[in-house]
Amino acid sequence: MAMNLRLENRINASLEILSELTTDMEKIVSELEKAKHDIIPTSLRRKLARIEREYEQRMMPVRTRIDAVSESIRTDTVSYGQSIKNAGWHAVYAGGRITWNTAGLEGYAVAHPEVLEFQKDSGPYVTIRKDQAKS
Q: Of 86, 80, 98, nearest to 128 (Cα)?
């Protein structure tokens, strides 16, 4: 019990530190963006915006294809029922989980099984992430 409390306190302290660090980082990034904006002349900012639009047009079809291939990987991995690693990527299979509208519903369902129709099963799902070992 005491060890769990110490661990919980340590986790809470770490979460607070993480929150402060994240806020500090966001502030620094914001200041950096403002400093870059302030130093770049308006004419150059316009040119940069035009270049960004041109590259955005080139990236759009690639993003669309990435989304389509990712969805295909998710669908196929759910059908396969197992995680797969390949080409520096990892399609992570996770079985579905059951959620309830309220915490008390489970206890109530023992005496009133008809409430089980309100049960929601999300079904299996897949996340796709970069394999850190390949980076």
A: 86
Q: H-helix or E-strand containing 122?
A: none
Residue 127 three-state SS: strand
133 close to 85: Cβ distance less than 8 angstroms: no
User: Which secondary structure element, helix H or strand E, spans residue 13, and what is its range?
Assistant: helix 2-39
Position 62, amino acid: V
Give me the mean pLDDT over the 80-100 stretch: 86
Q: Which residues contact residue 93 at a Cβ distance below 8 angstroms, ignoring those fewer than 6 apart?
A: 77, 78, 80, 81, 82, 83, 84, 124, 126
What global pTM score does this model have? 0.54
pLDDT in tens, 94-108: 888 776 656 677 788
Residue 90 CB neighbour total at 10 angstroms = 19
DSSP 48-79: HHHHHHHHHHHHHHHHHHHHHHHHHHHHHHHH
SS3 81: coil
